[in-house]
Amino acid sequence: MKKLIIALCLGTLSLQAGAQTEPALFQAADKTMMTHWVDSVFDSLSPEERIGQLFMVIADPSSNTRNMNRLLTYVKEQKIGGILYHTGNPVTQATVTNKLQETARVPLLVALDGEWGLSMRLTGTPRFPQNMMLGAVEDISLLRAYGEEVGRQCREMGIHINFAPVLDVNSNTGNPVIGLRSYGEDPQAVAERGSAYAAGIESAGIISVAKHFPGHGDTFEDSHYTLPSVFHDRVRLDSIELPPFRRYISDGYAGVMTGHLYVPVLGRRSPLPTSLNKEVVTGLLQEELGFRGLTFTDALAMKGASVASKDTNSCVLALLAGNDVLLAPANPARDFTAVKEAIASGVLDVRDIESKCIKILQYKYIAGLSNYRPVEIAGLQNRINTSHAAYLVNRLNAEGLTLLKNDNDILPVRALARKKIAALAIGESEGNPFQTMLNRYDSVACFQISRTSSPAEIARVYKQLNTYDLILCSVHTVRIPENDAFRKLTAAKPVVLTFFTLPYYCKEYAASINNAKGMLVGYENTDAAQTYAAQLIFGGIAGKGKLSVTIPDLYFAGSGLATEPVRLGYQEPEAAGLDPTKLAEIDSIVQEGLRAKAFPGCQVLVAKDGQVIYNKSFGYYTYDNLQPVTERAVYDLASSSKAAGTVTALMKAYEKKGFTLNSRLAEFVPSMQNSNKKDIRIRDLLYHESGLVPSITFYTSAIDSSSFRGSLYSSKKDAAHPRRFDANSFVNTTFRYRSDLVSDTLRPGFSTQVARNFYLNNTFRDTIFRIIAQSPLQTPGKYLYSCINFILLQQVAEKQMQMPLNEILGRYFTAPLGAGNTLYNPLTRIDSLWVVPTEDDFFVRRQLLRGYVHDEAAAFMGGVSGNAGLFSNANDLAKLLQMLLNEGVYGGERYLQQETLRLFTQSKTPNSHRGLGYDKPWPENPRLSSCGLLAPRSVYGHTGYTGTCFWIDPDNRLIYIFLSNRVHPTRANNSLASMNIRTRIQDAIYKSFNGKSKK
């Protein structure tokens, strides 16, 4: 008898659908195995259990006793076939799921209302954009990839059904319930994106359910609270509302949800909601459109599903209409009884109920429930929140942002050195992601206006804004309307508007939009939307999105302007083809260094193909663990200054054609004219082949020789030399400085600051160059690393440019680059709170060094020296390095000529691993190389004594930066080098390449 029923059911389905095919998931199933499992389960079910399979209840995923008892009652007494959870968190829901599945005699179908992924219902999960933003994404393959990822996450959670995609065409700007949930107003665009999302979901074996059939897009009411009406004729429905569903069905997807709508043209013989109307569910959906998958009602507890007659049960009507699954009945126990009674009275045909039960069991088999396994709780959160998920979230946001106005190409923002920029956030607090990201690109003054701001506070903000050259305004709420002061601001100043709201709301700011120079739609007020909007404004990402709906009187759907990226962007490693799992080895190496106290903290940055794909801060400023390192932390670059600062300035000077690499030193440094160094060539200084001594302790010339006995240094600790200075020496600390050369206050003639309360006589600079002139000279042409080379190269650059080194770098590079944290003598512009301390210098300066250069020679040069003195954080240093990698271009501006960059960065001496001011790999002698073993020969960069390095790889378009203060509290700590931390991190980067790096 049982097999006859199944045969009749399948035959009925065939007659209803005619030549239509089954959904793809059904077709892919092993029919023999499926029939065997369905037969055995169906045969074991009582009539009540067969009815129960049609019910899917909504419940809270709470594990408290009261809630669990309620859920267990549904399973044991109403024999439910499935469950849809309300909001919760992944671990709790998975725990509850496991308990219910353990209790259920037939495994339950677990559903998700995941229109934009798990985060629609579950906290602590990846927050994908809502559909209206996805409607602006042109790359449809991203929608499928997004669906695949949501499907993967569902499987991790033990979820089998996702109530998505939403195929409602939102053609009504006043729609109170669909809005951002729709892909837009173009039926073809909605169909294409919905089908792509469904394809991704079902590729993971998850059942997709399109909704809300026949189309909820053009309503003024919310079916949660009333029965919305759609009074269009059939021609209109066939052209707007139905095409996405036709496409979905023809593409072979598995589920459709019927909406609670009143559509007179589709239900001429009944006043019932479409979800309860046989003309719509059976006649239109199943017979005319040929849908043969699972048909779900929308939640039956919604007001839109209520019926006029108190004697008619909505669940009974839904089954009579042709639905298979009764979702969220208002009272499961009462409704279960009503269905039973309708069968007993003959209102419902038992064969129809059994046919639906069999169909549901078939899809349970398809969902893998014939081989049920509980959800693995351990590591669940990490398995859901993967780097790939983060990559897709970011990519979808970046691709969906829509630029609608860009007068005179105001975006991406250019000419930073000539602009004083402010950001105004309307309806968002201080430290919001939009303004935080803006400040990664330049120093942007930030202002906020909230709903609670007083008129006086608002007036004060607008008065301050009038002093800026460019205002980047973000609107984060629909609760603060446009006002006259704002309109006046947009008329008086260049303003770029960004809306993190439903696009329709933009019409409320129409006057200001017409005044503004630029306008961008971010669709929703999420962290990702804010972050990537800021990147688009500064050219970190391209502008690609196309408006998914019409903004009345402003912009039509499909509008959208394109821009190109011109600055560094911030993406996940996958965006640049790096394996995030392998790249995570960096974290392990850094943690190893922190445990060994090789350094108190550090910053590590990796940029590839113009995207920062790794940017992390670790540890603390000092070992007291009081101030954690953040990306704002500024480090002393030490000898990395040679390449980042001096060579960069020298290239600019070189382009003035006042010297060549063969020019003699004496032409630019008069103090060398009568010395044995007069004929040293610029090239020799850059290659470290000048013969100059490695270093000179200039500070000893400021010491009163009569203030101490014996020597200053000793290789052994003794009574006269009680304290270790570095790895090889102990020092005498009893000396005093000469009062004619050193002062503890700033006064006339003593303006060269060495450290806090430490000033030099201004004549000491001449003493330094006299000492250099008198210093011995080693064999010219032989490699000997020397800081003195770069002290002299500083003089060459300054002579040519007629300004100090710090001004050259600031005027021509760091200011226009927006790299304000890359500078000499940082305390002149940066609060000491953000500057990481280096050594507790008990010997030369007798203080903790914070904001004063660590290198003694640079300190006695006043903090601006060719060999050291530059400070930076990794983010701002990356801008300078990316300009070099781009062969002189950044932010749409040219800083150096391509020929100059190629000369300085590609040249290398045959005598060592040195280039023209840069360090390079030394494959012939890797033990002496400062570079990782896996880096190609084209790499150039430098290391710094304080524990820093940077490397630029033109072959792989790669930048690597490591900044630390390993000399804190003492330079005697050489663990950073002995543990090969910097080179191991560099090698870890190359190991993370998914493809082959160029070697």
UniProtKB/TrEMBL annotation:
It catalyses: Hydrolysis of terminal non-reducing N-acetyl-D-hexosamine residues in N-acetyl-beta-D-hexosaminides. Its EC number is 3.2.1.52. Residues 48-361 form the Glycoside hydrolase family 3 N-terminal domain. GO terms for molecular function: beta-N-acetylhexosaminidase activity. One of its GO terms (biological process) is carbohydrate metabolic process. Residues 1-19 form the signal peptide. Keywords: Glycosidase, Hydrolase, Signal. Residues 586-972 form the Beta-lactamase-related domain. Belongs to the glycosyl hydrolase 3 family. This is beta-N-acetylhexosaminidase.
